[in-house]
Design brief:
Layout lengths: L7 E3 L6 E3 L3 E6 L5 E4 L7 E6 L2 H9 L2 H6 L5 H14 L1
Antiparallel strand pairs: 1-2, 3-4, 3-5
Helix pairs in contact: 1-3
The chain binds zinc ion.
The site of zinc ion has 7 residues, from strand 5.
Amino acid sequence: MKSRRVPMRMCLGCSEMKPKKELIRLVKSKEGDITLDLTGKMTGRGAYICRNVECFRKARNAHRFERAFACRISEDLFDSMEAELENEQ
Ligand SMILES: [Zn+2]
């Protein structure tokens, strides 16, 4: 019997594999801008985190977003993405 394949992605905060649709994507556009992709429709390179601020903070503090996107991310940008994520819950 074949099991249904659910696309899984790893959260950069807790390192758990979860179904893609339960996670929030951060996207780096080809212009190099990083945004929280709450619609799931933006194009670009993506990194995933759970839909909670704790995982965002963990990933932020461990510099995992910077590593995933291979660039620096300003504190201001982190703060605004964190605020956006908090509003989502
Ligand atoms: Zn997580």
